Amino acid sequence: MEFSYEVKDSYAEVKADGRLNMVSAPKLREFVTDVIAGGSSRIVVNLENTAFMDSSGLGALIGCLKAARQAGGDLRIAAVQPQVKMVLELTSMDRVLNAYASADEAFGND
Amino acid sequence: MTRFWTRLVVVLTVILGLNYVAWRWAASLNWEAWWIAVPLVVAETYSLIDVMLFGMTVWKLKVRKAAPVPPADATVDVFITTYNEDLDMVMTTALAAQRIRHPHSTWILDDGARPELKALAAKHGLGYVTRSDDWTSNVPRHAKAGNLNNALMVTQGEFLLILDADQIPEPDILEKTLGYFNNRRVALVQTPQYFSNVPADDPLGSQAPLFYGPIQQGKDGWNAAFFCGSNAILRREALMQLGLVGYVKETEKSIRRALTASCSAIRQARKSADVGTPLVSEVLDEVEAATLEAQAQLTAGEPLSEITYRVRRRVDAAVQTLVQADMSTLQADLEEIAAMELAHVGEAGVPVVADDAVRRMAARDWSPLGALESVQAVLDALNVERNDEAQPVMPLATISVTEDMATAMRMHAMGWESVYHHEILAYGLAPEDIATMLTQRLRWAQGTIQVLLRENPLVQKGLKIGQRLMYFATMWTYLSGYAAVIYFAAPIIYLLLGILPVTSLSWDFFIRFIPFMVVNQLLFAVAGRGIPTWRGQQYSLALFPTWIKACSTAAKNVWFGRPLGFAVTPKARQTGGPSWSLIQPQIIVSVLLAAAAVVGIVRLATGLAEPLGTLVNVAWVIFDLVVMSILVRAVLYKGYQPAGDVDDGERKADGV
Predict the structure, then answer these.
(1) A65–B304: do the CB atoms touch at under 8 Å?
(2) Residue B331 neighbours by CB under 8 Å, 6+ apart
(3) Mean pLDDT on B102-109
(4) Order of strands, edge to edge, in the sheet holding B186-190?
(5) Which of A20, B413, B497, B550 has the least C-beta neighbours within 10 A?
(6) What average pLDDT score do residues B301-326 get?
(7) Does residue A83 sit at the B interface (CB-CB below 8 Å)?
């Protein structure tokens, strides 16, 4: 699992490459918390290279969403792979988070 | 072969039971004494349903073979939950857990946050977890469920072995159970709870051989083995999934509620006298527009996070604009004042309202909405952060004080499978005094009834019919307190007043009643295969005040939000002396029964009563008294005294 981020015009893009599971989930939470602490509270998690995600990974995303909201911003996800899409549907998390086609579109209308 | 006999006896029980109870309803009711006749036949119907559910349970009794070999790389966290138990006890369990052979991490989950325990854990290289800072005093702690949910966020094992502080595990507990998880649908493996500090005659009815035996094996056959809070292994993925589903459900519910509340809060605010200023009224218009838009988006199925985000932004922007407008007016006034040279101003000539001030004025506590607390509160509730809980995701259910049952039921509803592994792999400590025992039983019963009232298994989506009935069966048994009162009342009424709830104690009655009773007892004997069930039968009747109290307190809790208040039971052992007051209702009932028997015999001797009716009812009284006699032994019980080792007897579980 590899994390990276890049500050764009109106948001910060976080990439989580690899398998986002119970082992890497807490690390994602830590990573995003640091990005928020660095001053970017509008976060897009780009999942184009996240081949696998389990419920712990999704749980970490909710933790990140909460942190972003508390900092006055928001968290969105983009470019989900089929397996991740399935997990989103299985847990009905697609009811909470919209999966955008690309990171650019995520904050397109706000 | 045993299965054949069990099923045969089940079929006979059902046939003879229906035959008897149908006749009771159709042809035997003494309508002149309907006030006892009807309750009695209702109680008997209750008991018939109870035994039929038991029959259904053992119908599919599953005797499992050993589990397959587990993958060597399965990662496991062993959780030892503790709150205020003796440190020696916790450490004995923790060190035994450390010695479990399959690779794992051992964690002490200390809800008491005791520095001494932290030091002991560090000294022995054990993990130590206390509640994170998110568990402020503003959010519910959820007792053991909260403790586990907190720990789930800071650990990473694929599987979790959960142990109460007194449950000393065998080193092979994981080797014998992990293999079941090779089936990727299995989320739970429960092993028995067995207590090592209980004498052979078990005066407090601590061992539950019928439950950790035929009942769990039967439930297992229906893929409905219960999670019992300790000595169980759980799959993290299943728990987290439950947490997510619960999060989405709760969030959607609270947003719906908040949007509805928002409309009425706006209406209320408009009526209030403080809303004279156009500024506030404009803000209210904007909040209303945002609310209506959000409702439309919710109906259209848009994602909850974006709906709430937009409402927030829209309201914030409106407030900002309006405050800015207000400030501009203020600024203009100041300039005017400066122009008139009435105000003392700086070099620049004009006093300036800093941008910062606008921002601060627009922030929550300063904004015009601050004056409209109800509207503000509603807007605060419009979020996806679940601020009313310490963490958004709560994997273990928190709807009941028996989080284990509620959690397992949700897992089953999600399609996960469970296993009951019938082999003692951990040794615990049972309460050693009646007060603690009663508190514990009350708590179990309360939790079970809470689940029944909050998430009735009969109507849970996702559960198969067999699973629904397996959960319902356990809940049904806890309603027995009411039936017991009627069973005590009927013989007293006959012996004192000569009023019989049946039209006659004739051949018709005995030919139906006796075969049913015999086959009923036979069912327990066959299904139990020689395990002692008498103690359990005694307690299920004798603890009727506990069951009634559990039902009434749980109902008040679920329907009216009253606290369960189970902490009130005094600790008898600590105050010294036998605590007869704890069984006062049972003493009163026993005295009434005995007195009624005496009166009944006198009435018989003086020709006021019939011999057959008196005989049947006196026998009934004797049976009741024998059942209740266990409580005398329970009150007088002085704790476990193992032969030649008195010290050990002092270690005892804290009970709940």
Answers:
(1) no
(2) B352, B353
(3) 97
(4) B127-129, B105-110, B76-82, B159-164, B232-235, B186-190, B417-420
(5) B497
(6) 84
(7) no
Nearest residue of B to residue A29 by CA position?
Answer: B153
Among candidates B304, B385, B393 on the partner chain, residue whose Cβ is nearest the Cβ of A70: B385
Tell me if A96 and B303 make a contact (CB, 8 A cut-off): yes
Could you give the C-alpha distances from A108 to A42, A97, A105, B312, in angstroms and in order?
12, 15, 5, 17
Q: Which residues of B touch A90 (CB under 8 A)?
A: 241
- Indicate the CATH number of A2-101 among 3.50.50.60, 3.40.309.10, 1.10.357.10, 3.30.750.24: 3.30.750.24
Q: Which among B241, B303, B392 has CB closest to A66?
A: B392
Q: With an 8 Å Cβ cutoff, is A70 touching chain B? A: yes
| ipTM, 2 dp | 0.95
**For residue range B333-367, what is the model confidence (pLDDT) as tens digits?**
777 666 655 444 444 444 445 555 555 555 544 45
Phi, psi dihedrals of residue A78, rounded to the nearest 5°: -145, 155
Helix residue ranges per DSSP H, B153-235: 216-221
Q: Cβ separation of A74 and B157 shorter than 8 Å?
A: no
Residue B357 is predicted with a pLDDT of 54
Q: Are B317 and B274 in contact (CB under 8 A)?
A: no
Q: Which positions ≥6 away from B314 have C-beta within 8 Å?
A: B286, B289, B290, B293
B76-240+393-455 is classed CATH 3.90.550.10: yes
